Amino acid sequence: MKRGTQHQVGTVGEIPPGQHKIVEVGGRSVGVYNIGGAFHALRNICPHQGAELCKGLVTAYVTSGGPGDFHFDREGEIVRCPWHQWEFDIATGCMITDAAMRTKTYEVTVEKFGVSIENDLIFIHMS
C-alpha cells in the first residue's frame, strides 16, 4: 500500500478522545479527529461552498422511526458544516444524505516512539 508523503501533525496527548485539531499539512488545511482512540483526518473544506468544515459542530447521527421518535447514534462521528449545516461522516468524508458528495480524507497512523501513549506521534499520509 502506497502511503504517500508522511507529515507529523502532533501527539496522541494533544488530541484526546472526542477532540480534534486543525493543522496545515502540505499546503492544505486538515482536521485531525480522535474518535474513541481511532484517528481520522479530513480536508477542512465543505464541498458545497468551501466553508471551513472542521470548524463546524461535531455531533451524532440522528435517526427517527416517526414523528416525536428520534435517537442519537454514533456520537462524535459527524461534523456539521458551519455555513449550511451539511453533515459529513468524519471517518469516510461522505455527506450523510448523499454519499456521492464528499470531502477528501487522509490515512492517519500513530507511531509509537515513547514510553507513554500520550507521546506517540500522529502522522497524516498524503499522495
Walk me through the topology:
Blueprint: E1 5-11, E2 20-25, E3 28-35, E4 38-43, E5 57-66, E6 69-80, E7 87-89, E8 105-111, E9 121-126
Antiparallel strand pairs: 1-9, 2-3, 3-4, 4-8, 5-6, 6-7, 8-9
Uncertain regions spanning at least 5 consecutive residues = none
Biggest sheet character:
6 strands, antiparallel
Structural class: mainly beta
Cα gyration radius (Å):
15 Å
Mean pLDDT: 91
Strand content: over 45%
Number of helices: 0
Widest beta sheet: strand line-up: 1-9-8-4-3-2
How helix-rich are the residues, as a percent range?
under 10%
Q: What is the number of beta strands?
A: 9
Q: State the shape.
A: globular
In N-to-C order, the SSE pattern is EEEEEEEEE
Separation, N- and C-terminal Cα atoms? 12 Å
Please describe what this structure looks like.
By secondary structure, the chain is mainly beta. 0% of the residues lie in helices and 51% in strands. The protein has strands spanning 5-11, 20-25, 28-35, 38-43, 57-66, 69-80, 87-89, 105-111, 121-126. The protein has a 6-stranded antiparallel β-sheet with strand order 1-9-8-4-3-2, with no helix packed on it. The chain has a 3-stranded antiparallel β-sheet with strand order 5-6-7, with no helix packed on it. The chain is globular and about 50 Å long. It starts with a strand and ends with a strand. The relative contact order is 0.26.
